[in-house]
Each structure stands twice: as C-alpha cells, then as structure tokens.
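Retro notes (design track)

What went well: tokenization of the new backbones is finally stable.
What didn't: we kept losing track of which sequence belonged to which structure.
Fix going forward: every design gets posted as structure first, then sequence, in one message. First example under the new rule, 484 residues:
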C-alpha cells in the first residue's frame, strides 16, 4: 500500500493547491495568478450573497457489535466513497515502537486468511478503486472509491481486510524495505526534519511527538508486532464506517450487517488515547544541523486551539489573514515585497487532545535573520493590530470557499466526516463551523490573535548550516539549543 499512499498524498496535495488557488480567485474576484497590484476589470458585478456551508445529511446508526455507521446517500453520479476509521494511530504506538502504525497500514492489505495481496488488489481494481490507508495521530483510516454497481464486492474485500488481515511474513519483509527506503528519502528533506523536530519541541514526552517510524523501528518490527497492534485497534466498538455516494440506504444497511455484523471486539482494552502536553514549549531556537545547506528551513510553532474549542474559528480566520492564504500578510511581506521565499505559509492543525499552529518558510542563508525578524513582526502585528474590513471579509470568503470546493468530492466528504468522528464532533459540525466562520467579527479575531499569535509564544526550529543559523540569529538574543 505504500506506493498508493504516496501517490494519493501527492494527488491530494496537488488538488489542495488547485482548490486554494481557485478559492482565492473566487474570494477576491481575481484570476488565480493575478499580481497583487493588477487593476480589476471594469464593470464587474457586485458579490452575490454568500452561501453557507451545508452539512451533509448523515444517517447515523450502530450495528449490534458497536460499529458506528454514518451514511450519506447522494444519488446521481454512480460512485461511492467508503472510509473505515479506527481509534488509535501514531500517538497510540508502543513506546518501544513509535511510528509502527505506518508499517501496519502499509501491510494491512497484503493478505488475509483467504486472500493473497495480489487478489486483494485485483478485486479492488475490479470495483473501480484502490485501497488507501493513512495512520494519523489519533486514528487509522482506510478509504476507497468504487463504482456504485460494484459496492457489494468492494465491501466484501474491505470487510475481509478489516477483520482478517494476516500480515504474511514475505509481504512484511517487502514493506519494511520499502518503508526504510522512504524514510531515507524523507530524512534527506529539510521539511521533514523540521516537522519532526517541531513535534518533539511542542509535545515533549507526549506521544503526539511521533510523526513516523525511525529506521531502528522498521528494522525491529515483526509480523507479530503488527498482528498485536492490529488486533488491539481494529475492533467494531472503536470504529466507524462511512459511505458517501449513490446508494440506497436500506440496501447499504443490509450489506453492512451482512459483511460486518459478525465482527467481534477482543476482550483486551482498546488503545489508550494520547494526552495533551503539560507545558508549552520554551521560546527559543532549536537547530537541526544540515551540513552544507545553502538555505535555512524555518518553522515557528506553538500550541493552538483544538477544533472543539470555542475560539477555533476565530483563530482560523486570524491564521488566514496572517499566513494561511495566498494573499496573507506574511506572503505579501516576505514573498511579494522582499523576495525572501517562494511559498511561506501558516496552518492550524487540530488533534483530539491538542492543537498546534505552525509557520514555515524556506529561505536562502543570507536572509535567515531578516526572515525571522519579519515573521516575528507579522505574528506580533497580528496580535496587536485589528484586521481591516477587507482582510476580514476576504479571509472568511477564502475559508468557506476552499471548504465548499473541497467537499464537492465524495472521498473528501467521507474523510472529513471520519476526522470529525475522531475528534469527537458531530457530522453537522461542517455546517456549524462554516456558520461560525461567517459570523466571526474583528473583535473575535483580535481576542484569538492576542491569545495565540504573540511571537514570544513561539518555538523556532531552524534546519540548515548550524554556523549560519547561529550567526544570523545572534542579534535576537534567543537561546540556541539542539532539539530535545
């Protein structure tokens, strides 16, 4: 499954970029690649009324064994997106095998008690889809999009994988080699090194610091380890099944009862949930040495709101104004005005027990110090300066527009619903969040920005030539230290 996951992730990234560009165009009435000072065409009609995000009509129920069902019938286009999520991901991995969830999800479709890896792949392809797996911090999710006419055989294979994965020794060996190669490639990229370091800085000893396995974990992992974790997590009382697409609800329920009704939960306790970090990170610089690097990858990070927190939407709008959209303050400053970097960005990420906010920019060595100065300036400006009416309106339009475009895809709806379930939120949160974003005021943004955005809250990770980083950041008087 490794190659499929990589390709799926790459396509999702491309799709997200395209969606963001077009959403920006929608929000601003501009061509997607328009220069910021380009005049608007004359005679443009005024904006139409904003359309609020509509939560999908989700039919919620449970099987007798505890499996939660969220079904979204959408007649018309003859495809269905299936997702099955279970609680427990990277943050639930054993302390001796952090990141093993990634190896498990890569091998879960490589054989069952009655099907070999090739047979599983061919049967899924015969239904019009490929199974994709993802191990997140809080959950593991399997997804596949299939033709409506082939939903029964697709469910038969998916149910077999979910209940009877066997992790054949030969397939595990191949997957371990592939993952080891992937890790070597990842560890050659400064963005991965920055992500891994920032997770360690933000979360410390909390298991949320795990971003993937190490070479040592991959080498040490055995078939028995994978079987044990699989048996602990893949249980109906800790799982959700989602279907979005062209199907009859009653027929789907009958099929699900037939395919998943005999799935039994083991006697042992389910995986423990991760705990939030107890202390915020110290304001300082954490250096990851990358000898000979001609650029520095900078990440500013701090703990942020969880999605269930009452100020999450206001923080989301503040982030869009600051650095989360193409026309943000940060982009206008260090890309358009100063040319320090090509694609700076900021983002909020919510986990079940914690949230983080991160800013990243890849810059040439000569402007490392200047970039740190400008990022700190924009963070503090966000915390102390109210957004203009235009900034506020554009940020809200961008957030709602991007989400509306993304949720045109059945698989995106299924994955978003799976994410809401993992976070302990109801399916109508999609509409609730959109309404809260639309109703966010400048005062709401000010309060969230004052709470989350001061530069003094931020830990700074710098990946690059250590001597260059130390010299560039010396004027700031910040403690420069290795990653814990």
């Amino acid at each position: 499954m490794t190659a499929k996951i990589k390709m799926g992730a790459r396509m999702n990234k491309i799709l997200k970029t395209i969606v963001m560009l077009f959403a920006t165009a929608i929000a601003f009435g501009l061509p997607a690649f328009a220069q910021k000072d380009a005049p608007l065409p004359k005679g443009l009609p005024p904006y139409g009324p904003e359309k609020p995000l509509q939560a999908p009509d989700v039919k919620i129920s449970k099987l007798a064994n505890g499996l939660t069902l969220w079904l979204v019938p959408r007649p018309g286009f003859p495809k269905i997106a299936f997702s099955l999520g279970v609680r427990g991901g990277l943050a639930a991995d054993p302390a001796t095998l952090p990141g093993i969830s990634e190896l498990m999800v890569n091998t879960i479709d490589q054989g069952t008690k009655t099907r070999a890896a090739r047979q599983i792949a061919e049967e899924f392809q015969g239904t019009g889809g490929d199974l994709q797996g993802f191990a997140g911090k809080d959950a593991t999710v399997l997804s596949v999009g299939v033709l409506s006419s082939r939903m029964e055989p697709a469910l038969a294979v998916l149910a077999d994988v979910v209940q009877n994965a066997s992790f054949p020794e030969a397939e595990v060996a191949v997957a371990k080699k592939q993952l080891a190669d992937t890790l070597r490639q990842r560890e050659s990229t400064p963005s991965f090194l920055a992500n891994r370091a920032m997770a360690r800085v933000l979360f410390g000893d909390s298991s949320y610091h795990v971003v993937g396995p190490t070479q040592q974990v991959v080498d040490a992992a055995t078939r028995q380890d994978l079987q044990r974790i699989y048996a602990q997590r893949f249980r109906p009382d800790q799982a959700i099944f989602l279907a979005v697409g062209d199907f009859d609800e009653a027929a789907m329920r009958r099929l699900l009862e037939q395919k998943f009704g005999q799935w039994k939960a083991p006697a042992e306790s389910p995986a423990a949930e991760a705990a939030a970090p107890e202390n915020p990170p110290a304001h300082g610089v954490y250096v990851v040495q990358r000898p000979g690097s001609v650029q520095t990858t900078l990440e500013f990070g701090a703990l942020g709101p969880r999605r269930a927190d009452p100020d999450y939407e206001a923080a989301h709008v503040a982030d869009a104004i600051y650095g989360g959209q193409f026309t943000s303050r940060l982009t206008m400053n260090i890309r358009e005005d100063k040319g320090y970097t090509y694609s700076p960005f900021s983002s909020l990420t919510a986990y079940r027990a914690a949230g983080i906010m991160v800013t990243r920019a890849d810059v040439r060595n000569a402007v490392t110090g200047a970039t740190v100065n400008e990022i700190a300036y924009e963070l503090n400006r966000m915390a102390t300066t109210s957004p203009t009416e235009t900034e506020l309106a554009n940020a809200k339009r961008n957030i709602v527009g991007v989400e509306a475009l993304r949720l045109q895809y059945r698989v995106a709806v299924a994955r978003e619903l799976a994410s809401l379930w993992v976070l302990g939120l109801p399916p109508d949160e999609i509409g609730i969040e959109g309404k809260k974003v639309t109703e966010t005021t400048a005062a709401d943004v000010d309060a969230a920005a004052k709470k989350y955005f001061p530069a003094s809250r931020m830990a700074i990770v710098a990946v690059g030539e250590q001597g260059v980083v130390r010299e560039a950041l010396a004027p700031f008087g910040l403690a420069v230290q290795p990653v814990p």
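Added context from the reviewer: The first strand starts at residue 59 and ends at 62.
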